[in-house]
Amino acid sequence: MALGWALLTASLLALPGCATLASQPILSSHRLELPVKPEAAWQAIHAVLGKTPLRSVDRAQGVIQTGWVEGWGDRRFGLMGGSWHRRYRLTISLKPLEGGSQVAVASQQEEKAPAGRLALRWRRVPSDGSVETDFLNRLKAQAGSSS
Predict the structure, then answer these.
(1) Does a structural domain hold residue 101?
(2) Among the four residues 58, 103, 109, 120, which has the most C-beta atoms within 10 Å?
């Protein structure tokens, strides 16, 4: 009996890392250093975002959070081939560096099926990095054209 209790206790102590991992948001983060001052980088970020809905802008901290941007994913559903809905939001942070700026972009992505019980709620999915890479490529081009 004591051996069974000890094994149960040891196995429970080994699991907390798995339990906390499941509750954490799935984020993917990418960074880019720009040879422009933070003010120019801030303007370039806003130019790239364009009409993207913004959830919060904290210029003092250098952080912008976008609202959800919805679209269609590559994943197909059923025989009719309906596309899954996919959405993402970005957290963009700007940090001044000596002689430039560093921009970090993290995305949170979710998807849901076009029909059935899976269409009732959004489900977090890992990013493949394409949204972040696309944003940073457009930012690099914008910052290069404005300097």
Answers:
(1) yes
(2) 103
Structural domain that includes position 88 = 26-146
- Number of domains composing the chain: 1
Between CA 72 and CA 75 the distance in angstroms is: 8
Alpha helices (H) along the chain: 2-14, 16-23, 38-49, 130-146
């609202």: which residue's tokens?
Answer: 67
The confidence score (pLDDT) of residue 79 equals: 54
Residue 146 half-sphere exposure toward CB, CA atoms < 13 A: 21
pTM here is 0.74
Q: Coil, strand or helix: which one is 26?
A: coil
- Is residue 2 in some structural domain? no
CATH of the domain at 125: 3.30.530.50
